[in-house]
Amino acid sequence: MLSRTFGCVRVVWNQTLAWRHRRWHAEREPTNVPQANAFLTQLKRTEQFAWLNEVSSVPLQQVLRTQQRAFVNFFEGRARYPRFKSRTGRQSAEYTRSGFRWRDGRLWLAKTDAPLKLVWSWPDVDPATIDPSTVTVSRDPDGRWYVSLAVDVPDPEQAPATGTAVGMDLGVKDFAVTSDGEKIANPRHLERRARNLARYQRRMARKQRGSANRTKARAKVARAHRKVRDARRDFLHKTSTRLVRDHDVIVIEDLAVENMVRNRSLARAISDCGWGEFRRLLEYKTTRYGRHLIVIDR
């Protein structure tokens, strides 16, 4: 049922995105959520897409809200234009309270008969004590499944003042050089695993499209990418946490990453650094712990 739900979510996203695109070019009118809801209702009444009624309507409704936020972010300059979703990419379905039941740490989703089998990854939290407001089930291209819960938690205590400030210059040779003279080495996660990744990609290219062997080869490529992504995320989290813990004020440069990656000779190395994600981590961690982040123009 979950795989079917993922397919329905993907189809609703793609069909609604194409409809929005046609509507904008024909009428020059923006689309809101009620209008998208009306389009979804019409879509489900057609013979071609009647199978959308076989899954819970909750994740399909959430797709429309997610897409609306994506367009708001695009028009306000915070993100690029929303793209179509592929069946080989990451799949997800979001459920609000009306679409799931959480009891004693067990999760039932709408239109499923049995609770999901979960491996709890919060050792310090008793799952029976939480009350999630939304649940997101996702599957990575390498076949790993995840369940994310949105819960209300109290604000953490502000970190004790250190009386120090630090500026950072982000780069490729060194990930960052601080005003204290510290050089933070660039782990080059993708570069270190590029040979294995290229080998897996060559093997996949030799497999027949649509075959089971190509599916297995694609999963190997996805696992290699996940290892790179996980290692990069771990490094960025640990580095940002240490800087926020040790300094009251952090100063970084406003890097135009999207423009910089247009340089073909540096695009791969810049993307591997994860500067955009690093800034996002600094922004929310400094806010959460009572620190200050200053972003200066180039």
From TrEMBL:
Keywords of this entry: DNA recombination, DNA-binding, Metal-binding, Transposition, Zinc
Entry keyword annotation includes Acetylation: no
GO biological process, one term: DNA recombination
Domain Transposase putative helix-turn-helix: 1-28
Segments forming a coiled coil: none
Domain named Probable transposase IS891/IS1136/IS1341: residues: 149-263
This protein's record includes keyword Nucleus: no
Superkingdom of source: Bacteria
GO molecular function terms listed in the Swiss-Prot or TrEMBL record: DNA binding; metal ion binding
Similarity-based family: In the N-terminal section; belongs to the transposase 2 family. In the C-terminal section; belongs to the transposase 35 family.
Protein name as catalogued: Transposase
